[in-house]
Amino acid sequence: MGQFGKRQVRAEDDRLITGRGCYIDDITLPNMAHIVVVRSQAAHARITVDTSDARALDGVIAVFTAEDLPEAARILPDCHPNPALTNPRGPSVLANGLVRYVGEPIAAIVAENRYIAEDAAELVQVDYETEAAVIDLEKALTKQSARVHEDLPSNLAALINIATGNADSAFAKAHCVVKERLEIQRGAGQAMETRGVVAHWNRFEDRMVVWNVSQVPYVHRTAIANALGLPERQVQVQNPDVGGGFGYKGLTYTEDILVPVVARQLDRPVKWIEDRREHLIASYHERTQIHELEMATTEDGTILGIRGRFYHDTGAYTPWGPVVPLLTAVNIPGPYRVPNYAVQCDIVYTNTTPVAPVRGAGRPQACYVTERLLDRVGKELGIDPAALRKRNLITAEEYPYDVGFISRDGTRRTYDSGNVPALLDRALEILDYDNTLADCAKLRTEGRYRGIGIACCVEDTGLGPFEEVGMSIEADGSVTVRMGTPSQGQGQKTSFAQVAADILGVPFDKVKVLTGNTDLVRYSIGTFASRAGVVTGSAVSIAANQLKERACAIGAVLLQTSPEELDLKDGKVVLKADETRSIDLAQIVHTSLGESGNPLPLPDFGPGMSTTASFSPPTNTFATGCHAALVEVDPATCKVEILRYIAVEDFGNLINPLIVDGQVIGGVSLGVGNTFFEKAVYDSEGQILTGTFMDYLVATSMDVPRVEIDHLSTPSPLNPLGMKGAGQGGTIPVPAVISSAVENALEPFGVHLCAVPFSESDLFQNLRNDDSKSTRKSA
Known about the structure:
By secondary structure, the protein is α+β, with helices and mostly antiparallel strands. Helices cover 27% and strands 26% of the residues.
């Protein structure tokens, strides 16, 4: 049917853009109560809580504090345990006597409606006995620093060392050594839809039913079952439409446990919807790292090694283990040959919102520091940036490429396939690099300052351990695909329908994909880490091929031929040599089911056309990309205009290039925000200063350029579809690319960029400060 690889318009869009979607706040149940969470106004304090006035307000049903929760529902489970995390600390569902960041949940008001609950929340009296707040990332590790967790000897949550080769020896014989101190500031996820949970106890089925805007409903099922002391079969978690997840909706939050516990205790439906201020201060953040790294090269710019140390701010707790800094540490070599590598990461507790993966998940930081080091080498040695990168990129002939250490998934980090030099060449071709360089030089003589930035990246995708898919051909010849992998807006109902339609030879519109419900299949992992297409898509292909084999076997009996002589086409099993001899899939289903009261006509096959299949990747696949940008900067105003932005990607085989292009454009949009705008700022006492969209800025349509996209795919050998993930590649290189382009534009002024995000004000100060050649960290 030619569906795989087709630019198919998303089947979901008509319903969503005409207002017929169903999001979490659209779910309303009879007799439903509403929850408002009382949150800490102090970053670090011992607290006493008086809820008597709130309880007395008309319309208040109950007020919950820590002591009202069952023991099993008081501390969140570690969503990603890792032996490297030597001092893990999970968030309390409701703070019990001590708060550790502004926004930490203290109490839950349950009322007949949201308005009453909001009023009651104002009546809760919290007495704060404040303690010193740990905010500065580096000072947090000094002996004089206060401790976020008083039972620990320091604020060090974990120390990670990643190494290969002999870095010290490489540096000792290097011709060129450059060193940088690079800062990446904290940001928030900020999807269009905030978080929310609806829960009720279904007496008829004797089970807890939960709706959640989750990327991992099966993870939530397990956590809720453990908190309530129930077997998992008595918990159902469903996903309505989700207005974006970006990773930070991919783990368990306090409210994910709190709302079902309240619903069970009160025996009535309850709803909690996060408002935007809560989202800004309490939904998990990401990005904050300080890197002190150096790169050693030969005289011609060949990389000999990278070494150094970086600090990662994990916030007050470790809800997803050490995943983000670990991903940074293993991704710093990127798609380059780095034979000698030694990097230490200190994971540090601070009195700020906890940190978890947000789109890119530690990789934008890695790409930023590597590309900034390469830019510095290029300046020191007088080598063209494109030529320097091409000299050091892993060539197509070197794949599979062993990087030299263990990856995030515990396997040997080995790039499965790729050709990044070809990606770079294509990006330069689209940019018309040589002529554009000449134009920039000419315009500079006229007082106009344009610059070019280039960055290459790698992303580990297709994370295991497995995904399971159920599939059936229905009595009318249509196909139903059932999976636990939820959608967060990336078009799964379209892409996976294309895979099934191609293999089963049915029209695209005859395939229905059901997702995001823990009753659909037995087990699932979830949607994160650019894994759904690779892992779930492969399970879909396996299930479809199993049904194809079964259909051909039954068809062979009915058509009196062998299965090898048959194929599936246009909803039929057809004889390859004579397509006029065929039988409808609907007839095959009907025949296999037999007639009521009669013996089964095909007893060797059993009834119906259904199967369950799973796929377990042996290790990660690795997507790669090369981005390039042309910018113009006005030195008088420091306004940066992105004139062109080019993204050449290798995501392996593409199910639907139209959807993939949308992922790239969305990723670049977030990257632009990360480069110029998005910054969560705390004062010295731990008060968040960016708690509204007046202070926390995001990129708008006026800031994001048209993205010129091309794909040069090398199929992965690690899965049956030859795919690699595409969810985060658009985000990863953007801060590095734009920083390089802006610095290149302002080269006559000696500007050196070593922090993101950077604003026009930062550039303005940089240009007019003779004592500093680096972008200053804004308050």
